[in-house]
Amino acid sequence: xxxxxxxxxxxxxxxxxxxxxxxxxxxxxxxxxxxxxxxxxxxxxxxxxxxxxxxxxxxxxxxxxxxxxxxxxxxxxxxxxxxxxxxxxxxxxxxxxxxxxxxxxxxxxxxxxxxxxxxxxxxxxxxxxxxxxxxxxxxxxxxxxxxxxxxxxxxxxxxxxxxxxxxxxxxxxxxxxxxxxxxxxxxxxxxxxxxxxxxxxxxxxxxxxxxxxxxxxxxxxxxxxxxxxxxxxxxxxxxxxxxxxxxxxxxxxxxxxxxxxxxxxxxxxxxxxxxxxxxxxxxxxxxxxxxxxxxxxxxxxxxxxxxxxxxxxxxxxxxxxxxxxxxxxxxxxxxxxxxxxxxxxxxxxxxxxxxxxxxxxxxxxxxxxxxxxxxxxxxxxxxxxx
Length: 386
Prior knowledge:
Blueprint: E1 3-15, E2 18-25, E3 34-40, E4 52-56, H1 58-61, E5 70-73, E6 88-90, E7 98-100, H2 111-115, E8 124-127, H3 134-144, E9 150-155, H4 166-174, E10 179-183, E11 191-193, H5 196-205, E12 211-216, H6 232-243, E13 247-251, E14 254-255, E15 265-266, H7 268-277, E16 283-287, H8 292-305, H9 307-310, E17 312-316, H10 341-361
Parallel strand pairs: 3-5, 8-12, 8-13, 9-10, 9-12, 10-11, 13-16, 16-17
Antiparallel strand pairs: 1-2, 1-4, 2-3, 4-5, 6-7, 14-15
Helix pairs in contact: 3-10, 6-7
């Protein structure tokens, strides 16, 4: 943990519960660094220009991309804070722990509804590997199912604060996402949930979701090892969706532009999450509107990793050029739509597949092409039964 004193030189926007600041660090030799900093008003009183603050500069010193800003360590908390009547503590056993009202706890008005709940009743649940895939999935769903209610469940393997995400604010403001739930140690959604299982049930039963999207918060941990990365959260989400009777759809992480060989073509994050860690059968969305050589490479990666044996691969167009992103300009690792179209096509294809499965369930015409294993059921074939 790297801390440094700084003086606030400018107070910028207040977006939701976050103050944007420009600060100059205090250095022994004189002129310090000018840094962008964020101050979460969930934890401390508003700060003003000229005020001295303690900054956590760990992410900046480590040169991180996502999360590469300083964060104010609150010195003045809410003296009269009494909470919201909840008894579930998040950020537990840290100096910033706080109690929140969780959607399923006894004090919640939804406790009785969720007390015996155990089924999603076939709810399509699109499980992303990265946070940046979420807006494409949502836009694709709305493209085919304009009046659908889409709920985003954010898990706690990335950023913990929902308010850190500009893309969540943009998606809610544009109507691509209708409501949010922060699960586990994540916090700041429209509703809080103790874990992803209860979060998904709340999405279906409390928020009346037609679709759920699950993703980690911004940022993903990677160590260039097979299992030391945050992408395994996707496997956990797919397992949860299937265990609760949902219809799990997996979004592949693919790239034509990533400079790291392990993420070119089919990312090793996808092969470990879907080829090993995900034990539940799920639909895996494969965009077909890619360059032939890229598609051939992906097919080989899906086959060699065992993904094709464990899960039902669904081939479909991404329709990326037709989808209305409602002013949102998605990016991942600093790359936009034009820089790495394959990455974003994989995400939009997952939304197309989810909407197609929903349409098929309703008895409507579906764009989904599931191949020889499609059958008449919306449930993917269980590889354990083969």
